[in-house]
Amino acid sequence: MGSFLVYFINRGTISRILEGLQKVVVGEKVETTQPDTEVLYAGFWRRFGAFIIDTLLLYLVMGLVSAIFFGIVRGTADGTTNRGRNSTLLIMNILTIVFFGMLWLYYAIMESSSSQATLGKKLFHIKVTNTQGNRLSFGKATARFWLKALSFIILGIGFIITAFTGKKQALHDLIAGTLVVQDQS
């Protein structure tokens, strides 16, 4: 599988497909104004470590929110009647929407903020930039967040390609026109 992926990356097939997707999703590709030698790109393991930290923090918050909501449900219905089960299902559906909203806002706000990083990324001294090395707009950070779904849908291959791209970009970075770099400040 890895040699198959490397073959297509080396032939440029994947990059041509990604350039076309990028034009459709976020507009024309913009080349970086800084030479590649000055930028230290964040590798897979730093990014993965930051992801784990962010995931743990978000699960903690989501667990507290769930406990509050299910406490409300428990107070109104015991869950053994149809009314109780319906209330529980309704709360679970609402929580799913709330959680996706929390995830989106956390990543989009933090990555478009002046620090350009989530709490996990800050801990690993990495940040997200556009291809020119500048801060992301909220819209571009939002596009980057939702494009991560592609990497999950194709069994994580969108994340694994980080090891095979020159600027250590994952699939969502290639399409959104973003970079994850080491924060040298």
Helix/strand/pairing class, anyone? mainly alpha
CA gyration radius, whole angstroms:
20 Å
Number of domains: 1
Please count the beta strands (DSSP E, at least 2 residues each): 2
The average pLDDT value, as a whole number, equals 82
Q: In whole angstroms, how far apart are the ends?
A: 38 Å
Largest sheet properties: 2 strands, antiparallel
Count of helical segments? 8
What percentage of the residues does DSSP assign to strands (E)?
5-15%
Shape: elongated
Uncertain runs with pLDDT below 50, 5 residues or more?
A: 24-34
**Percent helix among the residues?**
55-70%
What is the ordering of alpha helices and beta strands? HHHHHEHHHE
The strand line-up of the biggest sheet is: 1-2
Pfam family, one: RDD
Keywords: Cell membrane, Membrane, Transmembrane, Transmembrane helix
Transmembrane segments: 56-77, 89-109, 145-164
Protein name: RDD family protein
Topology, element by element:
Elements (H helix, E strand, L loop, with lengths): L1 H10 L1 H14 L17 H33 L5 H30 L7 H5 L2 E5 L7 H16 L3 H4 L10 H6 L1 E5 L3
Helix pairs in contact: 3-4, 4-6
